[in-house]
């Protein structure tokens, strides 16, 4: 269980029941405490520091699904009669009622900023600074005794920029304008910071990703396979393209995606009898389809993933295809019946992503996440990596960016579809704007289920593919799931749930209350509706 030295008393009740996420403790005295200047002295120190930054990417993954998949129409907590405080927090995210003192929202925020702090310590030591006026990452002159060559210095800074941009992209999409920390600051300096605008955060993200694109390795996939999963030019281009799509800048995304498709060496896995499942296999990590993933390592070293334990069934009733990891099992992040029935019955992605068991009465089904599911010998010690960017993502982003049916977009759409579904898409079925956009949105939903993409996709589609409207989708979801929500101790009607979709809380999660109540020098604004 992660522990925090600094916590507001409003969180005490919830902290008692907090989810176990990994076997080691994470003490956050203050996310802005400066690093020791004495650390970075040799070239090997910078390598150690960079590897440490990659390691810090793991912690937020334990909470991210609550703010993404559960918030969307993909998953829910199939425990409607619960009175458990941690379960109620998850349900509150499902129905857009999360309070600002939700511990899991605070933990996602805290672990993300802890990682940013480590990254900033590295970029400070490299002399790579953000120039807000020009929107660039600039490099300060170094002494002749600096232990790195210019190329190595910029490569390490480029990888650090990628990680920082990844974090800020998640933060701005979840919370809106947040605190822009581009360097280490003292606790006193931190108290004077205000929330930056979303526009300023995106400007920072773009600067970081351009730095990563220009300075990370340009080696093609076949030359880099098995080197540890470092950020590459191709990953930076793909993430920058997704940022541009989110901002509605579709024409800026297209050349980046085209470059990844034509020059990166990455490709879809299509060989074998289970190509889709093989993408996620613990024995096939960093395969040709993975542009970037958060890496986990089993072996009771404190580097394993908690997701297999969190998502596995809490009962010992054997469910076909579902394995049971050692230790406490959460039974969280259940795929919705709506998601299950949206797949074609012969779609192998459904078979892999969703495990089912007929319940009592026989007319109902229980659904469990197959993705991230693996047998582990120790609690929260899964080997499985968490994909952030895949080649299929690039192909479908290209379809989204172009936005219309043509020979190329149809080829990319069918390439993803046909890998998993024997029944091919026909040109006639995507010939209108609405059917084309629905097809792209559906392929993304089926392809990336339980990869924390659906919620952000829905928000983005409202701009890039306007016939797929996030609020309309969620209102339809609540109507389809009405039987579930009417079983609560305090049941919701469909009309009440649809009203929540129109509430300002729909768009953003709250800024953690601890950030607001502990700052007595500079009042921090809360998001609308909270």
UniProtKB/TrEMBL annotation:
It comes from the Bacteria. Residues 380-530 form the RagB/SusD domain. Its main location: membrane. Transmembrane segments: none annotated. PROSITE patterns: PROKAR_LIPOPROTEIN. It is found in: Cell outer membrane. InterPro entries: SusD-like_N, SusD_RagB_dom, TPR-like_helical_dom_sf. Pfam families: SusD-like_3, SusD_RagB. Residues 1-20 form the signal peptide. Keywords: Cell outer membrane, Membrane, Signal. Residues 45-245 form the SusD-like N-terminal domain. Gene3D superfamilies: 1.25.40.390. One of its GO terms (cellular component) is cell outer membrane. Belongs to the SusD family. This is RagB/SusD family nutrient uptake outer membrane protein.
